[in-house]
Amino acid sequence: MASLSETHIRERLHDLRVLWRRVWAYPVTPAIMALVLVLCIGLTFPGEKPIVYGDDGQEMQLPAAFHKWTTHRDTLRLVSVYGILACGMTVVIITAGIDLSVGSVLGLTAVCFPLLLMYFHWPPVLAVCGTLAIGTVCGLVSGGITAVFRIQPFIVTLAMMVFARGLAKAVTGGKKAPLYIQSEDGTIHYPPVVQAIRTRWFDDNLAVVTVVFLISALITWILLSRLRWGRYLYAIGGNEQAARLSGVPVAASKILAYALAGLFSAVAGICQAAQETNGDPEAGATYELTAIAIVVIGGTNLMGGSGGIGLTVLGALTIGYIQKILSINQVPEAWRLMLTGIIIVAAVLVQRRRA
Amino acid sequence: MTSLTETDLAPAASTSLVDVRGVSKSFGATRALIKGNFDVRPGEVHVLAGENGAGKSTLIKILGGVHRPDAGTVCRDGAPISFRSPREAMAAGVSVIHQELSLIPTMSVMDNIMLGREHSVLGFMTRESQRAFVDGALARIGLAIDPDRLLGSLPVGAQQMIEICKALSTGSGSRLIIMDEPTSALTEPEVERLFTAIAGLKADGCGIIYITHKLEEVYRIADRITVLRDGQHVITAPVDAMPANELIRHMVGRPLAEQIKRRAPLPGVTVLTALGLTVIDRTVHSDAAASPDGTRRVRVSPMNLTVRAGEIVGLAGLQGSGAGDVLAAVFGALDSRYAVHGSMTLAGRSYIPQSPGRAIANGVALLTSDRHRTGFVPAMSIRANTSLAALQTVSPLGWLLMARERALADAVIQTLRVRAQAMTVPITTLSGGNQQKIVLAKWMCTSPRLLLLDEPTRGVDVGAKHEIYELMNQWTEQGMGILLITSEMPELLAMADRIVVMHRGRVMDVMTRNQADAERIIHAAMGGEINGIAE
Question: Is the CATH code 3.10.129.10 the one for domain B260-363+450-455+488-535?
Fold first, then answer.
């Protein structure tokens, strides 16, 4: 009997191991694990419990920050702009490329939007479309130079990063472009479109920018999993020569990827400007690095050919929570940066696959 | 003790620089070398001959310390040795000059020669002592090259000489130098200079193992010749005792594998005609025969070619024959570096191959020779790899119809009998033979009328090989035309209905299946006299 149960246990263990291996083989498993790990850190360090004194002088303890819904809601809202950039970055990285210009294009479009809307008085729909077109053109130029002249995307988009930042400063003369009207009595009015983007629905619980992020992710998902062009992007990133010899339009596909990254940068730029109620030519500096970190922490390989948008959404949440947890625990800026660096490396190491 | 007895058993070894006795090496199920015997004496050039896959590279890799033999002994100056790494072999005075250069073009000549063994004091490189060493090494083989020049700025021929110079300046003791097709990138005068250097080395008592695919070179420099075939030692003889026809007979020598059965249907309508097909390398100046880096200007001299429905046309040739360029030109796969001239028709219609995409749309498919580099996308699933070239047919307006994709890919995969656990696992989980079948399946999804096959059975096990031959039979019966490149002689002789032999971009011979024999093909492929060209 004893030996029988022993073999039984052994078989069970074996089954579990097989099951684990199968679960681990899903690309999302490590990404989810990284997120869960960060959430556990959040539960361990939920922040100080603020003590308030009631009217009767009685001490009252409020729940710690991490145990409050508002914290999670803010995390989502704050990571949305980065998440929108990361959508475009995912598409580009899948082709084994990189786009360093997304932060600067965000800055450029953040000043172009107020310019078109407030200065040229374009109708809101046209102003939005015009801004999106400017971002897309930036991407088309980067992608075109990369694909046609076969220059490394790192260099081309680095150049675009510098150029777009300069253009943003040139457009406004280095000043912030306001997205509000201050009447003579000092009250501030926002144009309806700006107000719409800044809004948070359901008692401040759902920010419009978060919805924009989720729609961007949905569009990217459709491209990557349901359109022919998405398949082309994976093929190019996985083996460009084989893709070319299979009739894949390599140059056109690459240009599409960078144009999409530019478009999403413009979307992020409009969101950023509306949230801040002005277009700052300095907006978006170093955002490209956060976007890359989100994509990588999600598990999309920088070598191209694999990954997906679901991973990027998980990566955005992970990065967002890291930031939030560090801030609710009042970790000083210097330590926050160092810890973020360490956590990124740790998360990527956790995700590394068995060979 | 053991080493003593072994040395006693092989007294002849004492006079040899290197003596290989009964050495075997297997890779998985493939027996690359079976009881190979071979020796090199001081002051001789020993030519190693054999077709592709005969075991030549395995043998020199064992001598160079890349592979370790499974059985047998290797003696160096009479003492048994076993190199564990190329470094050990180098230290023992065995230098291998590979076909591909192992130099770094962005570094100077001196830094290249000294790489990995820089002279230094406390980590600081001592320039003077390095300079003296390099000057000496260059002078020894009569090279007048500034050691400070960037290696990449030199013509390939000179780079090859630097490689030789580097190889000769390593290690110590009586030297064994292995040259694997050293002249493939050299121009005529450079070849002459190399041969002069070889003569000097012989006079110094060095032994040289020389591998070449060029007959005239064999008879210019060989002292002895050893022929390998299918991993086995066939014969070793002094060059005087082995005339060219004898050598070719030994290289081919096998009873041709009879199990490959070709069922040739009656040829139908013409699928492809190419008139005056020419491929020119634009980067080579028009009044030069070859560029500084040794590549020819005219990759393919004007040639005519027809392939009919149901016919397999074999394109035979050794390395650099231009056969691969012909396939790439027909598929539109050559980049803007090359200019393609001539007129082509495909199924009676004028055809200009501009890009692989256009070629596929016109019913042309190209199976490339290196499936890992150019055949499949490793990160993608079996199914996605299969449907890749035919995605347009399953995605109207760009929207992928998953069900239609699955139906198309899985049906083709089934006819090819691929053994896989699921169609959604990465293609890299398959065996080499099944990977190759998936790449073939990819092309079947595009329903081609002209199939260009470059080494369709390379790196494929015997079972899969025969399945691929059977598929080729079925496809031609269905009216497909096939243009086949293969370096395996039995495959070519068995499968091709007509054979076009090329040498350095020129058609040397054309023969039908009945006229074809291995000796005639090898003779033409090695640049032998033309015995009557049909086309």
Answer: no
Burial class (CB in 10 A: 0-12, 13-18, 19+), B286: exposed
CB-based contact (8 Å) between B377 and chain A? yes
Q: Is A15 left (phi over 0), alpha (psi -120 to 50) or beta?
A: alpha
Interface check B450 vs A, CB under 8 A: no
| Tokens 């003779």 found at | B523
pLDDT tens per residue, range B357-402: 999 999 999 999 888 889 999 989 999 999 999 999 998 888 999 9
**Buried-exposed string B444-481: b where 16+ CB fall within 10 A, e elsewhere:** bbbebbbbbbbbbbbebbeebbbbbbebbbebbeeebb
Fold entry, domain A70-348: ABC transporter involved in vitamin B12 uptake, BtuC (1.10.3470)
Chain length of chain A: 355
Residue type, B4: L
H helices within chain A, ranges in order?
A: 2-25, 28-44, 69-94, 102-114, 124-149, 153-172, 192-198, 201-204, 208-226, 228-238, 240-245, 250-276, 287-298, 309-328, 333-351
SS3 A250: helix
Q: Where are the domains of chain B?
A: 260-363+450-455+488-535
Q: Are A227 and A89 in contact (CB under 8 A)?
A: no
Interface contact B395-A237, CB threshold 8 A:
no
The residue among A93, A146, A132 whose CA lies nearest residue A255 is: A146
Interface contact B366-A245, CB threshold 8 A: yes
Q: Where are the alpha helices (DSSP H) in B416-512?
A: 432-444, 462-477, 489-495
Cα R_g (chain A), whole angstroms:
23
Residues 114-133 of chain A with CB under 8 A from chain B are none
- In a 3-state reduction of DSSP, which class is residue A88? helix
CA B158 to chain centre: 23
Going by the DSSP 8-state scheme, the letter that residue B389 receives in this structure is G
**Residue B534 pLDDT level (bands cut at 50, 70, 90):** very low
Query: CB of B247 within 8 A of CB of B224?
Result: no
Confidence (pLDDT) at B532: 45
Chain B residues with CB inside 8 Å of A237's CB?
379
